[in-house]
Fold this protein.
Amino acid sequence: MRRAIFPGSFDPLTNGHLDIIKRSLPLFDEIIIAVLNNPAKTPMFSVEERCHLIREILHSVKNGGCDLIVDSFSGLTAEFAKKSGATAIVRGIRAVSDYEYELRMALMNRRLEPSIETVFLMAAEEYSYVSSDLMKQVFLLGGRVEGLIPALVEDRMRKKLAKNK
Ligand code: PNS
């Protein structure tokens, strides 16, 4: 059983995240999309909302026999991976600028849990500039984010915006 976790804030899930999930499918039997509960940050969506939204989106993804599970965690990613019985942490790399940060995290995670490897996957070129923060910023300023985030995410962002007005 090859189990991996794909940790992140996912506030919200973008098409870049979805691309990495799809690329991971043939590599593992089970992938846990692990949503970080970070009390130090004020997110747009609560952890519960993010998990629910990701589950809804993954519903229509052809998983090719790989089980996709959505869970949340607090604390250390390496600890959550170990506790979940995962042997790998999946992370996406969009551009060279991601590399230094990701390398530091991968090395720290390896020091914390030497049995767990970080697997880096290269995001599709068309999503190489897509981040949750950029999507939120552009959306909140009225810009178009169509094609960069799932339609369901855009819909929930619109509803969230209307509610907070
Ligand atoms: O989607 P993000 O915000 O780039 O994800 C970053 C994340 C959640 C993977 C990272 O911040 C993390 O692992 N946080 C949990 C705390 C932790 O383990 N810190 C040490 C990492 S070396």
About this structure: The CA atoms of residues 8 and 122 lie 16 Å apart. The beta strands are 3-8, 30-36, 67-73, 88-93, 117-122.
